[in-house]
Structures are given as structure tokens and as C-alpha cells.
Design a protein that fits this description.
TIM Barrel; elongated; 2 domains; 354 residues; 4-stranded antiparallel β-sheet; 36% helix; Alpha-Beta Plaits; homotetramer; 12 helices; alpha/beta; 9-stranded parallel β-sheet
């Protein structure tokens, strides 16, 4: 770390900072500039250095080391992690395409959707049983009934499953039903929930907070991993900006950058990022071209009748077409996208334009 | 609500939207423009109208009514609410000045701070026993030991107390020790926690989320109030913007606007908003001049040795001087600030410049 | 447009708004809701309706029609425009890859770069002769000498050229030297400059402002087109957000959305958007996969010695490899990328992995 | 400056950076940490150090010195500057209240407004003759006719005047008519315009850009001052954030911070910042309480009929009442606000509540 001293710092103040650094186990190197003195502190211990900011004469502290350790690229020996969850592996050569409706609404709706996304080539089924909603008056999810339907759909299709948890209660209820526990954007800094999913030992899908920096997102993953659970998949889902035309602004450069900074796999949710069905396919293609390890896409068999997020849900046919485009882009990236069956397999053999 | 139809909408699509509106209990008024058709929907029921967005031919839905009801200005009959919490009332003529250290660190530290802020004129004592921290490796609070010290300080000084809760566990533990339960910025959309503090029946200090819109903030208050608890004080604490020179950007216009939109009292936290001791007093004065009902200020008897947030904590003497300035500005606003005792009372009698 | 009236509006106020609307040439349709009255105004004239907001009893005005006309998708009869500039056409099946150094620095540097980007497959050469810099103490460009070198490089390579103009003086000087006049992000709302490039009749590359909404960006294009010049290419170059890890946040969803809203071609500048060489190739691939019509990429033959923006400039070999990846993604999109010559043509024939 | 090297840096790369620093006139101090090497560079010359970022093995450059010199607090010997403009001085004990309509619309409108703001206590008259508008179809200002009316109003009332310039042409036309040249938010980084007002030698009101950081704002002032003109008044007018309820977010902490960083006076424009008449008076009071040196306020004698910005213009009576409140807050700050004449003088003598 580098400690920058005030323009008018006194020798006594410099001495106090130096002593404090040495107490904390650092070696202090003094550099006297023309108008400023800075102190370089060398040491390996992870310490809470905020106290230093308060010493008289200190203008600012510039950290050199990253605050996260376990999730850093270096900790992964420079290679990416592969996270196993039920029948799938995320972060390997096969892209993880998670698809399904925003919420589990009914047995018929959900099983229909499950079979449709399976046929189109998805390998993981999504569906919310606990819905955190902005208004207390909106539909809040089917809870355990929804989880039972998720498990039934998984048994019928062989798909892995992912569903959101919002507190200890929903986590306890979900752990025996689903393969991947999702922590939503609004809970990214609900540290108690992060610790709880960390202790669960299950695979975790950690969405980026609406206005979380990349560093805060990785620190949230560090909370989970510091409980001994490294089965973490990050999910970029758009950040809040001044632009009103899209629900959020999808930050694809974050995907490429996180691949440089961390060993964890990263997927993209183009549905919540844009809130606009027309933009979901272009952003899905772009995410794979940017190096994402997968996608989380809302698909509904009848979007105009969806109980939530219908305006951003793909129609089954749009999703099937997208899967073929993704397969072509995945090849450019040296990867594969989706397991094709039925009509999509025939289309795939016939080529994208078929 | 107004439903704007696509440029190329068909008569059949218009018919379908009209029928759906009528099913939902609205009257539909068709307005055919030169290039667009819009449908005005008249009705009083609060309904989840998102489904309409998904109907073919609908371009967008423009809500006319606000989504919050119980917390709206109209629900307060146009007057502001006064929230009682232990020995104090927030929202009345007397400004609520909440002061104290970021975290309860030790008996000596905390009792010293409590007496200092009391002498300077504060009426409510703050101190964190459960600290949600960005890093899992940072100090996380003294938990129950901290709550005991809060209660002891309150008993010695007669001050009311406020402290943060972060989950059901900390809420259960805190309810018998403190007068006001604080919900922090990172938990503003932790809906389960909102419902829990709503059911607690205790006064709640609800901080605005880092990137929460004013409408989302009021909807979070609506969650609490829909559980039957109207003892809510809102707290503006800075929002996240592109500006790197301050920790956050204090949004004082939100304070004035919320006073127009809601009957709830609003206070301001200049310490977290700025992260910079030099800006705390100016922003405190500005908040009161803007019409805030109070302040939440970090004061530490020895900021350079604080375990958290020392760089933004006022020295006791700075705080005492600020209280006198606030008193003068409060008079312009037709209010009073603080209960003066000891030296500050003498200073106060002698005039601000004394 | 829809005029929403206050909760407590009087009949007289409603009458005044209705009369004013009729004066302005609109038909007024009154809709009396349970708690609100709204007035639908039907008419085709583009009028400045801000005055209505100020009438007593009016809460807000909701525009239904878009404020831009000439640049809208509808004005292009639903098809995209193709902009011709010197030897190239932008917006057609061939992607427009503009590449070269940030600034023209010297004859040797610039001609070297020109030949390198030509060999890799670029069709347009970029190079700044007038550099708008944040600091008055930074290198400001070679001005006319730089323009001469641009023209010389174009003559040697057959590439089209693009260079930034910053005022009437630089525009007058540039118009005979370059094919495309660039309006930079900081000048996106320099309305006098927009009018001047509009009157020039030359092709214009209009960068999105650092914090411009998509609507403001299209309105800036409308300024140019309202001077009779429709040869406009839009360029997304990242927006300013709270995220500090990248210079800006590349908003690729804006590209897809603008293609829905306007007939103008849109390209992407991944170099300024990210400010980080490691992210330029992933974001270039993503842009093409999202449907962009081209790219603007900084390439320097010796980035560590560049006078500006070296940390975001690709090495020639990185750029050559990127062109091959783009060609593969372009095929998925039904387009072609680049004209390959020399070594890259051989590599291309051998396949991307060759 | 501190140069942080990559984790895997080689000795050769360290040597190259060290040599380059010494070539540039710096002394290099090597600090070898446990996982990183950093190089402290000592020297007083202001150099463009961007080139260093491109050297192999360099991760990042951390500047220690501020990039602005002439406008820094230190350059003012720690004291604030007082800017003289016609009959007024800005930055001294008397607050500068600039008031008047958004645009000069007609002789009657403008002279009426001028007398009204004079009577209420304003000392500077504002009025736009050149209006930069988002739409090419909106009212663009009366140009020279407007300037003549400004001069006539000044002659009748004795008020100083301020008006916006948007290019060399409007600057040349304005310089003989007005006391203060305003550079608008959208032109804050129109560097040619900054240089031109710098060369004009006239007092300049420099608005902060919509998304300009404080450092960029001060660098824009540095552009003006580096042309030899130190008569600069800064104006905070709200920044662009995610919050849609107000037009912009007024950043009052920027005012207090700029007073720490620079010797230039700073005023606040609450009208453009909020876009909402109800918020203008609270934000005006807050600005003065935060330490601002003045205000720029839109006042119109008949806001519902204003040609621009009527919804944010104060009625004359609201403005007169605000001036009295400001006077009371100014006294707390040890300053005075406004020159009272006529009815406001009588009200003032009778006390704020009179």
C-alpha cells in the first residue's frame, strides 16, 4: 500500500505513520518528493488499513493489492474453475444455457416451458419459487409448491435446475430441490445470506448488484468462498445508469474483465439487463462472443400471459433460433452451445439458415 | 393508466387490450391520434398491470397513479407524520440529531462518546453492534455485547438509541435494547427484513439504497407500513454516481421532494454520503436548510483510532460547533435543534460566534 | 401527447389547458379517472409543448411521439441507410472497420500504421490531427500537417479516412483532406458544430456523448440531418457510469436498440469505451455479434511509445488476429468483414485457427 | 507519481521503466513488496505520463499531484479569489445572486423581469440571447436583439449582467453587451470555446458539465486560466444520475469540496439542477448553508407563458420571499445576501416572518 501525506505534513506526523505501519507488520519506505512525501508499505498480511486514513497528516491510502484473495485469478493458478452442479459443468468447453420462465406459475405452464427449452438445447432450467418484488402488492411466488414443480420438471427432462433464495428459510427449503442456488442482484450485499449459501456447500449463482462495482461483486463471492464453498458462478445482469431506454445497461466489458481478474465462471442475463425482448438475442450473441461461459434467459410459452417479466421473455421459437446462432458463435470461440434434440437438431444439421 | 399502442397496431389488437382492461375492472377510453392510438384506462383498483405490456400491439404502459399508497402524502391527509421513539419525537418542530460512533467498540469508547454527544445537544445516540462490511475480513461488530453497551449509555444519558439490524437474528436480539431499528442501505430491498421490522412494531430508520430511486425507496417503506407499522423515518445517505471525489453523492433534492410526496419524516446522513470529515458540517447545515427533519452524524472521541469510518467522523469539538450553527439555521426554518447542556449551553446563550 | 392534471385540479384549469391545446392545433380528449383527470391531445404538428407544463393544474406532460423525425426508422421506410464515404459504403453487407493510431504523430509512424491496418483487412484509416484533450498541457495534434499525412496515407493505401473536427476552423481545414468528419463525444451537443458539419455535405461520424441518452444522441443526428445532410454514421463509445475498473461502460444494447429506432448505421469504438487493450478484441467481437455495422479501433505499431492512448491500442498482430475472428462472426450475421491481403489473406484461407 | 508493476514483471522491464523515468527528469525509488514491485517517481515537472502506462510490465500509474495548477487552492495562497464583473464582486462577503428569465423573449418581458429581480434584491441579471437547445426545432434565442435588451435592462437597473456564449461568433457579439460570459454545461469541454473566453479577458461563469467530474471541471477552468484570464466563477448545476424524479441531481458536496481544492468562487444553479419550481427555494437555502458564493436562479414574471423552462422558474413573489430567507442564512455564514429596495427592504426590516 502507498500512504500519501498532506502537503504540509510534519516530521512528527510522518514518524507516527511509520511507527503505526511497523506495528501492523509492514516495512515502511519513505519517498520525499518535491511537494509531497509518500510512504510505501511492504508486507503480506491482509489487514484492515482504514485506521491509517485517520492519522493526522495522511491525505489518502492507495491500496496496491486487491482486497479479494480466494476468488482471484492467481488463486486459481491462472486457470478458470469449472463448477459442477447436478448433471452439468459450468466454465468448461460447453456453454451453460439456463432458460425458463421468470416464475413458476402452475404445473402446466412450467412443464410446458421445461420441455420447450430442453428441445431447443438448454441444459439448465430456471424458474423462481421465491420472488423478491419491488411492490408488496405483486405476486411473490409459489414457494414450496414451486420447488416441487422444479424438481418434477428436472426429473422429466434431465435438466439441471437453478432457483433464487432470499433468506435462510427459503434456502433451507430449496436445498433439496434444486441444483444451483441463485442470489439475486438486490441481495448481493446481504452478507448473512452470502454466508448461508457459502455454508450450504451447493453451487451458487451470484448476480451482480444493480450498482455494484466489479470489486464489490468479487468481494461478495469472497464472502461465499471464505465459508469453504468455491462452487460459485458469477452472473452479469446489467447495471443502473442514467439511460432510460433500457431497464439496465448490460456491462459486457465486465465479463471480459472478470475473466482476467478471477478464476470463477461468468454468465450473462440479457433478459433482466435489457427488459426488452427485441434486445435479448443480440445481447446473448454478444455475450458469447465476449467470452461468457453461459446465459440465463427468460423463455415463456405464452409471454403475454406471464405473471412477471413477460415483455422480456422470448417466445419458444425465438429461443430455438437463438440457440442455433449461439452454436455458430460458440464455434468461433472454440466452444459448444447446447444439446440439440428434436426439431432443433434437424435445423442444426441443416445449418443456421435452414 | 395510459396504454400506448404500436404504430402498426391492428383493430383486433386494440380490441383485445380493451377487453383485457375491462376484465381487470377498468373503463377503456380510446383516443385515435394521427400516427398513434392510445387507450386511457380509468379505475381505482391497484392491479399488477405488467401483463398488459405483453399483449400484441402494445408499445408501452404509462402509469398515472403512484405505486405507493400508505406512505403517500395524500394518505397523511397532507400533513407530516411524527414518529415517537423512546423519549423523542421525529418529524415535529424539534430536529432529531442522531450522533455517535460508527461502531460500538468498547465500554470506554462508547460511554465517552455518548456523554460528549449528549453535552453537545444530540438527542439520539447511534452505534453499530452488527456491521455489514464489504470484506469478510473486516471487523463485524460486537453483537449482543454492543447492544448492552448501547442500553447502558442510554440509561446514563437519557438519550434515545438507534442501531442497525441485518437479519431476523439481529432484529430479535436488538428489539429489547434499542429504540430505533436501522435498516441499512444495502438491505433497502431485502424484502424479508423489511417485513420483519414491519412486524416488530418498533420505530424504523430506513436508509435509501445506494442506487435506489426515490420511488423504490418509498416502495420499501410501503413494505414496512403494509405490515401495520407506520413508525418509519427515511434517511438519505448519498447515492452512487460517476463522481470519484466523494464516497457518494448526497442527494439533498431528494429530501425536499420526498417531503412533497410522502408524510414520513426524512433525515440526512452526511457522514456516509461524503466519507470526508471536511464536508460533514457544510452538508449538515445544508440538509437542515433544505427542510430535513434531522441528521445522523458520526462522532468519535478519537477518530484516528476508530475501528471503522474514522476519516468521516467528527471530532467532539467540531460536532459541538456544528450544533450551534444548526440551531441558527433551524430558527430560519421555524424549528429548534438540540438540547443544550453544559458548555454548549453557555456558548449557545453567548451566540453562535461566542 | 397526454397531459396529466393535478389531483386537485379545478374545472377552470382543465378548461384553460383544453383551450390552449386547441389554439396549438390539437384536438383535446378529456378522460376523468377516479382520482385524476388526463387530457389526450391529438395532432400531427411538431410543437414545442413545454409551455403547457407551466399552466396551473398541470402535473406533467407525457409525449407519445418521438422528438426526432428525419433520423427515425420510419423515415427510412423501415430499411437501414447506407452511407457512402470515398471508396467505402457503411451500413451495407460489408462491415466498416476503421483502424489506426489515436493521433497522427509523424510521417513514419502514420504511414507504417496505415500499411499495417490495410494488410490486416481494415478499409478505413483513422488518425487524429486535432486532439481535444482534458489538460491544456497535453499534446494537441499536428493540425494541417497531420491532415496532409492522412491524405498521403490514403493515396498510398487506397483506404478511406476519418478524422475529428472540433470547430469551424478545423472543419474548413479538414474537408478537402478526409472522407469522414468525426464529431467527438465531448462535442455531441456542440450544436453549432453539428450545424456546420451538416452544411458541409460530407459524411459524418457522430460519437455518442459521455452521458448522452439514446434520445439525445438521435436528436444530435437530427441537428445534422435538418441541415440537409443524411450521411451520418453513429458511433457508440461507452458511457460514464459508477464503475471505475474500465474507462467507460460500453453500452452494446444501445447499438441494437438504435437499429430499431433509426435508419442510420451504427458502429462501435471498443478502444475508448474500455481504455484497456485486453478488452478491445472481446468487445469488438461482441459488437459485431450484436449487429453493429462496423468498428473504430486504435492500432499502433509501437503502443508503448504512442503519444496518446497507447494503453488501449492494439499491437498490429493482435489486430490481424481480431480481423479473422470478426470475419467468422460476420458470417453468422450474414455479413463480411474486411478486405484481406497479404499474410492475413493466407491466414484467412487457412481458416481462423490457421 | 507511483508506478505499480505487474505481478510477473521482469528485472529488465523494471530497468526500462526506471530509465524512462530518469529520461523524463524524475528520480526513481524502487520498493519491492512481497507480491508486487512499485516505483515511486520524484520530480516537479508537469509531464504527460501516459506513455509510461504502455511500457511492458506496468500495471498502472497512480498520480500523486493534482493535474491542475493555476486554479488550485495552493496557487491562491490558501485564500479565495474575488472576481470583479461590472458593478459586482463575486467571492467576497456579499453573496452573488444572479436572477432573471431563462431566455430574453421580448422587451416588455425582459424589462419587467429585470425590475422585479432588482426589487427583490438580486445584483446580477441573467437572460439567454443564444440558447443551445436539444432539439433543432426549439426556440434558439433572439441573438443580438436579446443582447441589446440585456444592456438596456442593465442601464435602467444598475444590475450586472450574465449571458451564455456558444461559439466565437456569439462571444464576439456578446463581449460589448454583458459583464459575465457564461459557458454552458454542454460546452464545458468545448476546449476551443474555453480558450476563446480565456483570451477575451472578461469574467467567465463556467458551468459544470452534466457528467463532469470535479477534476475535469477544474481542468476546464485551468484551460481558461492558462490563457491568462483568472476571472472565473464556477457554477454547480446538477449532474446526471440514475434518478428520474429530478432533472439532474444537485451535487452540493461538490461546492464544499471545490472550496477546499480551488481558490475560485463557486455558485449554484438550483433551477436547472432540479427542473422543479418546488425544489428551487429549498436548494437555494441549502447551497448558501453549504458555503456557496452565490446563486443563479430562473425567475419569470409569468412562468406559464415562458418560452423555455417555465416549470422551473420562480414567480416574482416566491423569489422575493426566498431572498429574505437567504439573508437570514447568510448571516449564519457571516455573509450578506442581496441589496434590498422597495417592498423587500420593508419586509426585511420587519423580519423574515413579517
Amino acid at each position: 500500500m502507498v500512504v500519501v501525506m498532506d502537503v504540509n505534513v510534519s516530521e512528527e506526523q510522518i514518524g507516527e505513520v511509520t511507527s503505526r505501519l511497523e506495528e501492523m507488520g509492514f516495512q515502511a519506505h519513505l519517498i520525499r518528493g518535491v511537494s509531497r512525501t509518500v510512504i510505501g508499505a511492504v508486507g503480506s498480511r491482509a489487514v484492515d488499513t482504514l485506521g491509517l486514513k485517520n492519522l493526522p497528516g495522511v491525505e489518502k491510502i492507495i491500496p496496491i493489492m486487491k482486497p479479494y484473495k480466494l476468488v482471484s485469478r492467481e488463486a486459481g493458478d491462472g486457470a478458470g474453475s469449472v463448477v459442477e452442479a447436478g448433471p452439468v459443468a459450468i466454465g468448461g468447453p460447453e456453454l451453460a444455457v439456463m432458460a425458463g420462465p421468470c416464475a413458476v406459475e402452475s404445473r402446466e405452464q412450467f412443464l410446458t416451458a421445461a420441455h420447450l427449452v430442453k428441445q431447443a438445447g438448454a441444459t439448465i432450467l430456471r424458474g423462481g419459487a421465491f420472488k423478491p418484488r419491488t411492490s408488496p402488492y405483486s405476486f411473490q411466488g409459489l414457494e414450496e409448491k414451486g420447488l416441487e414443480l422444479l424438481a418434477e420438471a428436472a426429473a422429466q427432462t434431465g435438466l439441471a435446475t437453478v432457483s433464487e433464495v432470499i433468506d435462510q428459510y427459503s434456502l433451507d427449503m430449496s436445498r433439496d430441490y434444486v441444483d444451483i442456488l441463485q442470489v439475486g442482484a438486490r441481495n448481493m450485499q446481504n452478507f448473512r445470506l452470502l454466508q448461508a449459501v457459502g455454508r450450504s456447500g451447493k453451487a451458487v449463482l451470484l448476480k451482480r448488484g444493480l450498482s455494484a462495482t466489479i470489486e464489490e461483486w468479487l468481494m461478495a463471492a469472497e464472502y461465499i468462498m471464505s465459508e469453504g464453498n468455491g462452487k460459485i458462478v458469477l452472473c452479469e445482469r446489467g447495471i443502473r445508469t442514467f439511460e432510460p431506454s433500457t431497464r439496465n445497461t448490460l456491462d459486457l466489458s465486465a465479463v471480459s474483465l472478470v475473466k482476467c481478474l478471477s478464476h470463477l465462471p461468468v454468465i450473462v442475463d440479457p433478459s433482466h439487463a435489457t427488459g426488452d425482448r427485441r434486445l435479448v438475442s443480440p445481447m446473448s450473441r454478444a455475450a458469447i462472443a465476449a467470452g461468457a461461459d453461459g446465459l440465463l434467459i427468460e423463455v415463456h410459452h405464452d409471454p403475454p400471459r406471464a405473471l412477471c417479466d413477460g415483455q422480456q421473455s422470448l417466445y419458444p421459437d425465438e429461443f430455438a433460433r437463438l440457440m442455433l446462432e449461439l452454436q455458430a458463435i460458440a464455434m468461433v470461440m472454440g466452444r459448444v452451445a447446447g444439446k440439440f434434440t428434436g426439431q432443433n437438431a434437424r435445423r442444426f444439421v441443416a445449418g443456421v439458415s435452414g
